Amino acid sequence: MGESDSESASTRDAPGTYAAEYEPIAVDGDVVVATGTSTYRERPDGPIARVYDNCFVMRFDANGKCKEFTEYYLKRP
Fold first, then answer.
1. Which of 16, 52, 63, 65 could cross-link with 44 by S-S, CB 3.0 to 4.6 Å?
2. Are the C-beta atoms of 36 and 22 separated by less than 8 Å?
3. How far is CA 6 from CA 2, 36, 71, 75, in A?
4. Confidence of residue 1 (pLDDT cuts 50, 70, 90)
5. pLDDT band at 11 (very low <50, low <70, confident <90, very high)
6. Would you say residue 20 has pLDDT above 50?
7. Is CATH 3.40.50.2020 the right assignment for the domain spanning 18-75?
8. What span, in angstroms and rounded, lies between the C-alpha atoms of 26 and 28?
9. How does DSSP assign 5-64, residue by residue?
């Protein structure tokens, strides 16, 4: 899945309505695990509407290009 004209495809967030911070916590060969936080606002100057804790698991090919990506996330109460 990804961005496309399909109704079920994801869409980009409007500029200024989100912030994200991630960092790698484990690297083993071609696999990297990163964790972080994504914060969303309804409008750029609005209050924070939701926050997610994220974990990304990525596998890279021999050229350094990501060939597998899995995202786990949990919305904060």
1. 16
2. yes
3. 9, 29, 21, 25
4. very low
5. confident
6. yes
7. no
8. 7
9. SSTTS--PPPTTSEEEEEEEEEEETTEEEEEEEEEEESSTTSPEEEEEEEEEEEEE-TTS
Q: Record the tokens describing residue 41, joined without a space.
A: 């606002």
- Which residues are 38's β-sheet partners? 20, 52
- For the record, the structure tokens of 12 come out as 């980009």
Q: Whole-model pTM? A: 0.76
Please name the residue that has the structure tokens 């890279």.
Answer: 60
Domain boundaries, the chain: 18-75
Q: Which amino acid is at 70?
A: T
Closest CA to 54 of 32, 31, 70: 70
